[in-house]
Amino acid sequence: MTNSLDRALALLELLERTPGGLRNADISRELKIPRSTCSYIAARLEQKGYLSRQEDTLRYQIGLKTVALAHGALRELGFRTMAEPVLYRLASDTGMSAGIGVLQQGRVLLVDRVEGPGFVNEVVHRKIPRGRTREQRDIGRELNMHTTALGKVLLAYLPERQRAALLRDLVLVRRTSKTILSKAKLLLELAEVQSRGYATAEEEEYIGVKSLAAPIYDSAREVRAAVALNGGLADPAWNNAAAVVDLIQNAAAEISKRSRLA
Prior knowledge:
Layout lengths: L1 H15 L7 H8 L3 H13 L3 E3 L6 E3 L2 H11 L3 H16 L2 E8 L2 E8 L2 H8 L9 H4 L4 E2 L5 H8 L3 H10 L13 H14 L2 E4 L6 E9 L5 E10 L8 H21 L1
Antiparallel strand pairs: 1-2, 3-4, 3-8, 4-5, 6-7, 7-8
């Protein structure tokens, strides 16, 4: 039973990171399991709505049942409701996008996001939005720790033993020419994050995109989440960097306070 469950989870994770889906033979080859076993597991998942299968290409894709599960998980993050007004205010004050990320089982997940008015205006007028695509902005998406401001904050404020364990297994994948690829350099930056109380990432994940993040504290004074601003390098708000830092730190403090009072 455990083996079948592990295979089913591996199949779901494989399809989640494969746009367009895969045929049974491709899944079998990728997961190194017999085609008959793969076909049985995929058929069961399709029957329950966790997968869908295209009639013309016979490719399996992630099903909509997983959306319902994700919604239930996000609903349990109570601070999202309290944080939403703060995110809208951040987006309004800066013209940029605001979001919240959490650290879960060694992964950084984007759990809420509000688009800035500049982005909305571009979409309404059918211009090509700057920065990231829709898929890259989706709530629930996993983020890199070493290339994003959210990831750096969450990593910096981990207890030392947990941080060391994560860094030991962390692969520093190159995303742009500015991506940090040295763990020694990353450790130095994490120390700076702790010292100044916020993190930055400039074109380390996406060319032309800059982000700023600050820690959100829970009732035990532990950092479980972080709030971030993301925008293009040419966004006017960056011209007054000190003001933007104040905004993000004040937003983080307000969300932290609201969470403790809830």
